[in-house]
Amino acid sequence: HLADKGNFSHFMAKEIHEQPQVIRQTLENYLNADKSGLQHPPLPFNWQDISRITIVACGTAYYAGLVAKYWFESIARLPVEIDIASEFRYRTPPLIKGDLAIFISQSGETADTLAAQAYAKTQEQHCLAVVNVPESSLARAVDCVFMTHAGTEIGVASTKAFTTQLSVLAVLAIAAAQARQTISQNDYQHHCMALAQIPALMDEVLLCEHKCREIAYQLSKARDILYLGRGTSYAIAMEGALKLKEISYIHAEGYAAGELKHGPIALIDDTVPVIAIAPSDALFEKTASNIQEVAARKGRVILISDAEGHEKFPHPDFVRLTLPATSPLLSPILYALPVQMLAYHTAVIKGTDVDQPRNLAKSVTVE
Ligand code: G6P
Asked: Which molecular function terms from Gene Ontology are attached (predicted)?
């Protein structure tokens, strides 16, 4: 039976744990046999002819798009505009004929996303959908479909759909970079192989679940929680905050670490947990200096990093989650997991209805 929780207490827990398997399944469709190159559906355009990408989505899918913006810009040197569908559709933004618009949706039925796609079509965009339901309205409306193979997602708070979306968007960004020759053949192979390693690394990340549960006891007592990150970790910070508020009903905000000093630092005291998403990448030192500011104001820092990051930033009072080292490009796919587990366990401790949080729907098919 499809709707079977197996040994898990909630669909969300089951879906969190399915991630290594569904990412593997998804990548099987997009990586060649020796994992050193990509294969994908034919594209109705040439990457060289695209001058700008427009990405539109809602909710968690929007945060997947935000990660992809950083990817397309950094490795494929393509300008990307991103917006939430409910804003995009009424903004009537002028788009250059023949450019690419990407729509991301688990269900393929979100009303605002469908309307945004219809608008993009009037602007003569090539429309590509990253979608989990093959026969959905969105899949049928676009010129090109890149499937996520997450299987049925039942928990209202999206987990495995998000990380499969990220995996498919990584494939698209790497494909664009290769076609536009903005990366070397070596880097191309390196990125493909790093992608192939994600499922095994995810298995490792899932082992920190007991630690997430411990941290969740602390989070469950908080009134406000701040998530910080830079670069693609900024998107994961916002996704982490969304996940937490959706299912635990604790107020949370995701903020760009560098923006902390322009407002939210005023909220910091010893009652506010601050979750820092900080893999040891090129931006680590910058994020670390923002976390230092939090610590100086007695904020309760929870640092999510790898062994190298923790070593670089010894501080006796930090609560720490250690993830395996990964390629800096693909870290958001791994760092999505601890924020899901923190939200999940916080909600379980609070006793909320994890799979069916109040006021929320799995798919928002009306405006
Ligand atoms: C609802 C769901 C979210 C989801 C969003 C977009 O708000 O509760 O989990 O991210 O819709 O849904 P879609 O199916 O378009 O990805």
From this structure: carbohydrate derivative binding; glutamine-fructose-6-phosphate transaminase (isomerizing) activity
Q: How far apart are the first and last CA of the chain?
A: 32
Q: Where are the alpha helices (DSSP H) in 180-327?
A: 185-206, 209-219, 232-248, 284-296, 307-312
Mutational pocket test of ligand 1: of 364, 365, 366, 367, the residue with most ligand atoms within 8 Å of the beta carbon: 364
User: How far apart are the CA of 359 and the centre of ligand 1, in A?
Assistant: 13
pLDDT of 1 reads 45
Q: What is the per-residue pLDDT for 80?
A: 98
- The answer to whether residues 93 and 348 touch, using CB atoms and an 8 Å cutoff, is no
User: What are the pocket residues of ligand 1 if the criterion is a CB atom closer than 6 Å to any ligand atom?
Assistant: 58-61, 105-107, 110, 113, 156-158, 360, 362-364
Name which residue sits closest to atom 15 of ligand 1, judged by CA: 105
**Cα–Cα distance for residue pair 37/276, rounded to 1 Å:** 33
**Tokens representing 307?**
């062994």
Closest ligand 1 atom to Cα of 158: 9
Establish whether 286 is a catalytic residue.
no
Residue 199 CA to ligand 1 centre (angstroms): 24
CA angle 124, 126, 131 (to 5 degrees): 130
Helix (H, G, I), strand (E, B) or coil at 54: strand
What order do you get walking across the sheet with 144-147 strand by strand?
Answer: 80-84, 53-57, 100-105, 126-131, 144-147
Query: Which residue is it, tokens 């899949």?
Result: 139
| Cα-to-centroid distance, 161 and ligand 1 (Å) | 10
pLDDT for 2 equals 56
204: buried, middle or exposed (CB in 10 Å: 19+, 13-18, 0-12)?
Answer: middle
CA 206 to ligand 1 center in whole angstroms: 24
Nearest CA among 287, 282, 279, 275 for reference residue 230: 287
DSSP 348-365: HHHT--SSS-TT--SS--
User: 317: phi > 0 → left, psi -120 to 50 → alpha, else beta; which?
Assistant: alpha
Q: What is the mean pLDDT of the chain?
A: 96
Query: Residue 366: its pLDDT value, please?
Result: 84
